Amino acid sequence: MTLTYTQHYIQVTREELIIALRQRITAKRFEHVLRVEQQALALAEQYGADKEAVSIAALMHDYAKDMQLSAMATLATTYWEYPGLSEQNSNILHGFAAAQICRQEYGCCHEGILNAIAGHTIGWYQMDLIAKIVYMADYIEPGRTFPGVEVARELSAHNLDDAVWFKMQATLKYLVDERVPLFAGAIDIYNSWTKQEDL
Amino acid sequence: MTLTYTQHYIQVTREELIIALRQRITAKRFEHVLRVEQQALALAEQYGADKEAVSIAALMHDYAKDMQLSAMATLATTYWEYPGLSEQNSNILHGFAAAQICRQEYGCCHEGILNAIAGHTIGWYQMDLIAKIVYMADYIEPGRTFPGVEVARELSAHNLDDAVWFKMQATLKYLVDERVPLFAGAIDIYNSWTKQEDL
User: Fold this and answer.
1) Residue of A121, A7, A9 whose CA lies nearest to A64
2) Looking at beta carbons, which pairs linking A17-22 to residues 24 or more positions away fall under 8 Å?
3) In sequence order, which residues have a C-beta less than 8 Å from that of residue B98 and are 6 or more positions away?
4) Residues of B in contact with A194 (CB under 8 A)
5) Can you tell me the ipTM of this complex?
6) Which of B173, B177, B182 sits opposite A187 (nearest CB)?
7) Which listed residue, A7, A175, B29, B146, has the most CB atoms within 10 A of its CB?
């Protein structure tokens, strides 16, 4: 599935964005990102989301992942002010950094796109359809093989909120199993989800 | 296993403490507390901990659990200053409240006892032997039947640090499974454990 950008959410074409992306990340990651975009577009089709916004967010989501950690931290903290954010590792920082690149380099002002990029790893407080789709597409794209991915695919096909909950819970439990420190910002987002009564 | 208090850690005898305890909590909880004390004393025997301190912490650990929430919050925040502590539920607050009662009503100044009481639910940063024993005794006393309790008993019998890790991880994962908000103070304690290199 390909598409032509017409909404001017960013100042380049889809083709120019892909060429730039290829220069910024490893070949293996580039293939992953293209699969995420396709998965995200399929979900956008199913759930009636803005495909251009979804495509941009999906293509940008790992844009910063192969940067130096210090540069990533600088970008992330240019805009976001979570306590302790600058000391986080690349897993936490790369989404925030990519969103900032999308804002700075590509002139993006679409909050839905920027939040979807920033929150693709740890989720977000009020996730709109774009954010939920990118969050899940990154988790279930066809290259993923971890235990539980089939459940995530099944949930994504039927109820995006259930799918987002599944990923959020599974991610936290995985980190706890691995005895990895938990980022307070991610816990704050999880806590906000526990309080959304409509879910 | 019974014992006579001789160290003046608190200003009453074990018998007086038990009589007071019986008046403060439900009959069912009272039985649980007595089992926790016996379990804790058995672990104290095995690991060479101060039995009098362990007995006091075990008998006091749920002392505040049947209080009104507002009174619990007042007691807890008299001494501890965690952000958001006063808004927590009784699961989080009752240990802090009981430690404060031990300090205020029974004149206890033994930091090991007070921290063991305060941290018996969410753990503690630097847990000494008393704290680890009370934390685990509460989890594995013979009345406990939850899935995983046999693993916890096995670990407690062989390596207290492994056992504490098991409870801390299982508790967080249980809360996430139940979609319960996570207390930032508990996450901070968990994070400090992930950074203890000797574990």
Assistant:
1) A121
2) A17/A56, A17/A59, A17/A60, A17/A106, A18/A59, A21/A59, A21/A60, A21/A63
3) B60, B61, B62, B63, B64, B65, B117, B118
4) 179-181
5) 0.88
6) B182
7) A175
- Which chain B residues are Cβ-neighbours of A187 within 8 angstroms? 182, 184, 187
Weakly modelled stretches of chain B, pLDDT under 50 = 199
Q: How far is CA A135 from CA A15, A101, A108, B7, B84, in A?
A: 23, 19, 19, 58, 29
DSSP state of B37: H
Q: Which residues of B142-159 are buried (b: 16+ CB within 10 A; e: fewer)?
A: eebeeeebeebbebbeee
Query: In this predicted model, what pLDDT tens digit does every residue of A62-88 receive, in sequence order?
Result: 999 999 999 999 999 999 888 889 999
Sign for the CA dihedral angle at A153, A3, A51, A105 comes to positive
Give the pair of three-digit tokens for residue A53: 């916004």
Q: pLDDT tens-digit profile of A6-44?
A: 999 999 999 999 999 999 999 999 999 999 999 999 999
Of A172, A184, A195, the CB nearest to B181: A195
Rounded Cα gap, residues B153 and B150, in angstroms: 5
Give the closest residue to A168 by CA, choosing from A183, A151, A187, A144.
Answer: A187
Select from B179, B193, B195, B197 the residue whose CB has the most chain A CBs within 10 Å, as the one to mutate to test that interface: B179
Average pLDDT over chain A, rounded to an integer: 95
Tokens of B39: 């379990």
Domain limits of chain A? 14-194
- CB distance B187–A190 less than 8 Å? no
- In CATH terms, the superfamily for domain B14-194 is Hypothetical protein af1432 (1.10.3210.10)
CA B65 to CA B62: how far, in whole Å? 5
pLDDT at B39: 98
| Total-model pTM | 0.90
Q: Where are the alpha helices (DSSP H) in chain B?
A: 14-24, 27-47, 51-60, 69-79, 90-104, 111-118, 129-140, 149-158, 160-177, 184-194
Residue A9 confidence (pLDDT): 98
**Amino acid code (one letter) for A111:** E
Of the pLDDT bands very low, low, confident and very high (cuts 50, 70, 90), residue A1 is: low
